[in-house]
């Protein structure tokens, strides 16, 4: 190995370790690796910036706008829930929702579909006394499988497409991946409705669990006339920074003060509602003039009256809240919402709510203002998954919703008949939506997930460094040395498994970018069609079923389904083996 190869290998190992241990946001980690490679002279400025002008990356940016316009008008979720309600039995209803789902996720972004359908399915299950955990992992898995059917099904497909073009190869056609995508989707659906269904746990929904155990979460104290701090602020009364407790609401006669600040004045007769670690209530009981109300009838549902509502939100793996305590993030002032409880791996964290350091996949139970769901539905900080009605903004104009859907279908038709490339079709679609004012410039800007684009564009540079220094060739030679004695099938299995491991540990797009240079070098060494290797890597990078962190949709359903990490291992491992077997079998006989 040369010095430059060793240096690039060290940078990549450091990058993968940082992604694995979630030291920072994935886009910032990969971008940092790119900057190191640029400053070290491994990459020229042109090579480092090539990813930012790659057609695949720019197509993803345009897709965010087109698909975001279609989805934010609520047409898809309204049609899906109407279709779901027509089912006469549990299996019948699930067939109705899961059979068309792959077709939708083949053309629309997986993440918003799962964000939209998670609360709808969860509420539907709770109304019928069905465990949401029987439905939500299949929801994630089916959308992942559907995303492998077309070029635009996932950002990973487009990333690989862009890299192939960079290497002078033709890239994927719109339905080329369907050769593998359709069979693995059919096999996946059969598995999820049979063996997979038996392996899924039966967990109560988070809200239902909290509602049943609300006395553990809620403490109520009455301010007597003898309280020495009557008519003083919360801060002066020393009720702000309590060990293990947090004052979330004051009930005064018929009035509820839900945004309790340090300047809120305490009055005699007030009922103080606390949440947090109730085990420390004995310390507060000793204060003169505060009486603990035992056997209170106050339930969480009562807190939804007036100007407040109950909301659930799952912390995103790209959230700016990560690695901070709730108190440090100034959550209350930032979102006009109070964190009442946090669930992690289906267990309530035993510490003061304000001191909890948030991690990806944490589910927050929030007491929020009425505009919370509407305002933060598209936030990168978390996915709002509360079982509430569709926000009014999603129902503003059905006409615009239908028009934007027709524009998307028209763009797809242009690609299918060969009139336009994917990039040109999406550029035309965005232009039409902007000219007709179906989407505003501000909305278009908000729909583009710049952190995702930064991750992808930076990863291109990292992949280029692997090829330029010969590191990709060195890894390819090593894999060939291991697999060649056992034949081509063994080599394909090695490629699939390595990609799959990267996907489960870091991110799907980063896994694809690391593996494509290796796959192309192996194809060259074996004098085989590189498209076969590209298809295996693309499918393996998307088919993330074994952990909740490998794919965004798995993370979204993690908290709402009340899942544990091992639930994904138990249900996802057989599915991964099935998908790998079908993929390798088809690629072997079709391409080689």
From TrEMBL:
Cross-referenced Pfam families: CitMHS, TrkA_C
Ranges that cross the membrane: 28-45, 57-74, 94-115, 135-154, 174-200, 399-419, 448-466, 486-519, 531-551, 571-591
Record's keyword annotation contains Repressor: no
Domain RCK C-terminal: 206-290, 298-382
Compartments in which it is found: Membrane
Keyword Repeat among record annotations: yes
InterPro entries cross-referenced by the UniProt entry: Cit_transptr-like_dom (IPR004680), DASS-Related_Transporters (IPR051679), Na/sul_symport_CS (IPR031312), RCK_C (IPR006037), RCK_C_sf (IPR036721)
Membrane topology classification: Multi-pass membrane protein
Keyword vocabulary terms for this entry: Membrane, Repeat, Transmembrane, Transmembrane helix, Transport
Primary site of residence: membrane
Entry superkingdom: Bacteria
Stored PANTHER family: BASIC AMINO ACID ANTIPORTER YFCC-RELATED
Protein name according to UniProt: SLC13 family permease
Organism: Planococcus wigleyi
